[in-house]
Amino acid sequence: MNRYSLCWLDYDNSYCKTKGYAAFKDQFVRDFRHISVDPAVTNPILIKELSQFITEYFHVTIPASEQEDEHAIICGIATSSFLANKYVTQDEIRQLGSESFIIKYIEEKKSILLVGGSESGLLYSLFTFIAMIQKRIDYKKINIHESPSNPLRLLNHWDNLDGSVERGYAGASLFFKNNQIMIDHERHHDYARLLASIGINGTVINNVNVKEKAPYLITNEYLNELAELASILRAYNIRLFLSVNFMSPVIVGGLDTADPLDTKVQSWWQERVSCIYDMIPDFGGFLVKADSEYNPGPHTYGRSQADGANMLGRALKPYKGVLIWRAFVYKLQDWREPSIDRARAAYDIFFPLDGQFEDNVILQIKNGPMDFQVREPVSPLFGKMEWTNQILELQVTQEYTGHQIDLCYLGPQWKEIVGFDTHAKGTQAYVSSIINGSFYNRPIGGIAAVSNLGDDYNWTGHWLAQANWYAYGRLAWDPNLASADIAEEWVRRTMSDDQDATHSIVDMLEKSWSIYERYTTPFGLGWMVTPGTHYGPSPEGYEYSIWGTYHRANHKEIGVDRTSSGTGFSAQYHDYWTKQYDNLDSCPENLVLFFHRLAYTYPMKNGKTLIQNIYDAHFQAYEEMRAMQRQWSDMRLKIDPKIFAEVEERFTRQEENARQWRDVINSFFYRKSGIGDEQGRQLY
Ligand code: GCW
């Protein structure tokens, strides 16, 4: 048995090769007799990936050569003479970016053609072809041209050098242990393959909180191992990035300041960057969390966020590196002070700096103005900063969404975010087109997500949380994919290709976020989590804290007025949304307590009071969770028994958590308000 699961690249998974597989195999083997390889292809792993797939999936060998013949799988690069004008037109070639590809069946040659704009494009075409075969689609009908939507498609690991993972729920770090980088050739190779197979092209391997030994990662002490890791990743078109501490010149460089305007500091960074590029010529760049949650930054020296980011950006520019600067900047506060609203912070700090950032600086903005709650409005910075490159930051790791104990498939949440119309310059100004740079014609942009990976056998703790990893990559590549289609693709490649099982697991995945939302904090409330861990309920756990996370419930009402006449947060949006959110009739109900302070007796659209809706949401979502648990029991004979049992165990823990959430939150509201449940269900 493997040391770890190969997830959707486990080509020998018998649960995914049931009905229809044998006939499909016969046909495939009849149709394709050799792999015809463009001599311009230099990366040996490319054809190896295809051959390995064919061997493990079909248990046959199809020889590869540079020969051209019929009945072939032809693999080529658009610009090479191998293909020139033969199967693709000049026009098609011109449209192919380096990561783009074409896959099409050529009737007259009885062959399938995979052609990439470069070797990277070819790599993606191979993995796409493999996925199509696993889904057993009719390859004779294929004719697709694909390009990734986002130039940067990044994973952010929050791994510490001691091997722990901040907000990690899947074991220890894949990269670090005892302050060392642990190169595990086999696993890192598979890590890279898995990432590439879903289109991810960059990874930040260390935590944005760069503490203890981590600031030393950029010193020569670690560069050999980093270079080794980078070369494993490179074969799969993945660039290595590092998180850095803004104070590095002081912490590791021995300078007496990290002031970005100080020339000693600038030279120090330039020298460090040049050492890194000597060892890793395609190094991606730095990610920085500055002036945030005890991390120092330019504000320490009275400088702006742009001063800090640009200084590092300039150091990276000669090497085509990028500087990714997080917008997660806010002040710790006194809960007694109602005029300060943390939701406003990022916009208040960064919007005035629009136009002041270097071209290779990118602002990485969390999806919402607070912090990865189960539901938040989309950050108003998207669509407002016209002159600034942007990366959308999502959270795959389930910090606030159930710790990979509770099932919470985030595909539907991410779809709402990337599909949000910011109403910049009128309509159809979607987040997806802002972050990829197309809307404002920015040179670079993309998407990043906090990883949910660790060294667990199944990578993600909960087997079904693998679907989040998968969905993130697929949506980063193509935000127009439907979340259910992605879920189905994942299920068919990893769990089962049985129709009923697929249908049922996709159904569970698709409803799991809404269920989780309703038994925890519906209507945009958020923050009723246990402080510190962020698992389980604690209705006032964050109420009298420094974190700016208050709902200010009393015996009559709850919520924060964030409208234009309240804290003014809603005024940070384009007019359309300011009006929508300000007005109670048009404010989406699932966000109503994010934007408004309401009486418990406030009548909601269904005619019931707010408090009754809160009770109903909790009681119903708990029942739905139980139904989902039973639905899983029906999978017993349909999927791998090990996976079945491990997921079943998670559902048992989820049931306890859901019951706890239901009863604690409902009882909290009952005790505050004195209003009972109209159906007389038990409150405590
Ligand atoms: O909300 C916080 C998390 C921290 C995290 C921080 C961030 C890495 O609880 O664990 O730190 O967000 O995004 O920087």
Concise summary:
The protein has 684 residues and is an alpha/beta fold. It has helices at 21-31, 44-58, 90-94, 119-134, 185-197, 220-234, 248-251, 263-279, 305-316, 345-350, 411-418, 431-435, 466-477, 483-494, 499-519, 575-582, 592-595, 610-633, 641-673; strands at 34-37, 64-65, 72-77, 101-106, 111-116, 143-146, 152-156, 176-177, 180-181, 202-204, 239-244, 285-288, 322-326, 361-366, 389-395, 446-450, 557-558, 598-599. An eight-stranded parallel barrel has the order 7-10-11-12-13-14-15-16.
Write a structural description:
The chain is an alpha/beta fold and 684 residues long. It folds into three domains: 7-146, Chitobiase, domain 2 (2-Layer Sandwich); 152-494, TIM Barrel, CATH 3.20.20; 519-560 and 597-673, Alpha-glucuronidase, C-terminal domain (Alpha-d-glucuronidase, C-terminal Domain), CATH 3.90.1330.10. It has 19 helices and 18 strands. The chain has helices at 21-31, 44-58, 90-94, 119-134, 185-197, 220-234, 248-251, 263-279, 305-316, 345-350, 411-418, 431-435, 466-477, 483-494, 499-519, 575-582, 592-595, 610-633, 641-673; strands at residues 34-37, 64-65, 72-77, 101-106, 111-116, 143-146, 152-156, 176-177, 180-181, 202-204, 239-244, 285-288, 322-326, 361-366, 389-395, 446-450, 557-558, 598-599. It has an eight-stranded parallel β-barrel with strand order 7-10-11-12-13-14-15-16. It has a six-stranded mixed β-sheet with strand order 2-1-3-5-4-6, covered by helices on one side. A hairpin with a 4-residue loop joins β4 and β5. α2 packs parallel to α4 and α8 crosses α9 (305-316). The relative contact order is 0.09. 4-O-methyl-beta-D-glucopyranuronic acid (GCW) binds at residues 158, 166-167, 208-209, 289, 293, 328, 371. 4-O-methyl-beta-D-glucopyranuronic acid binds next to loops.
